[in-house]
Amino acid sequence: MDEKAKLSEKFYEVLQHEGVVSIVSWGNDEPHIANTWNSYLVVTDDERILIPAYGLRKTQNNVKINNQVKLTLGTRHVSGYKDYPGTGFLITGTAKFLESGSDYDMMKEKFSFLSRVLEITVIRAKQTL
């Protein structure tokens, strides 16, 4: 899919509240799941998602083999469909790790602990709740 999905206002609203983000990657083995926090996600003007990486070594090894990833995230503090409490998203995209450059520098200033930055180019963003 060549066209990048637009992230919705509801997605940005979810990012204003804390919640767990699951990052799913897979190389030659079974899928691997790593976790981070909503508050660690930074969305660029062109809607790439940047995530500070200190660990994520298995994720990085998987991305070298297969750059496709899936992310799930949500919060119970934002109403979902039919005003149910809580909503979430499934993000499908491609990933790479940054070790230098302007995006890396900006993220390093925000998150001094990082050693790399996981960059997700969003292909699809679907609200799930």
Structure overview:
The protein has 129 residues and is α+β, with helices and mostly antiparallel strands. The protein has one domain (9-127): Electron Transport, Fmn-binding Protein, Chain A (Pnp Oxidase, Chain A). Helix content is 19%, strand content 40%. It is built from 3 helices and 7 strands, in the order H-E-E-E-E-H-E-E-H-E. The chain has a 7-stranded antiparallel sheet with strand order 2-1-5-6-7-4-3. The relative contact order is 0.25. The model has no long low-confidence stretch (mean pLDDT 94).
Major sheet description: 7 strands, antiparallel
* CATH topology-level name: Pnp Oxidase, Chain A
Proportion of helical residues:
10-25%
- Percent of residues in beta strands? 35-45%
Number of domains: 1
Quaternary structure: single chain
Which series of helices and strands comes N to C?
HEEEEHEEHE
Name the structural class: alpha+beta
> Which shape, going by the Cα principal axes?
globular
Instruction: Please report the first level of CATH classification, the CATH class.
Output: Mainly Beta
Order of adjacent strands in the largest pleated sheet: 2-1-5-6-7-4-3
Residue windows where pLDDT falls under 50 for at least 5 positions: none
What's the N-to-C terminus distance? 24 Å
- How does CATH name the architecture? Roll
Number of helices: 3
The total beta strand count reads: 7
Mean pLDDT: 94
Radius of gyration: 14 Å
| The named CATH superfamily | Electron Transport, Fmn-binding Protein, Chain A
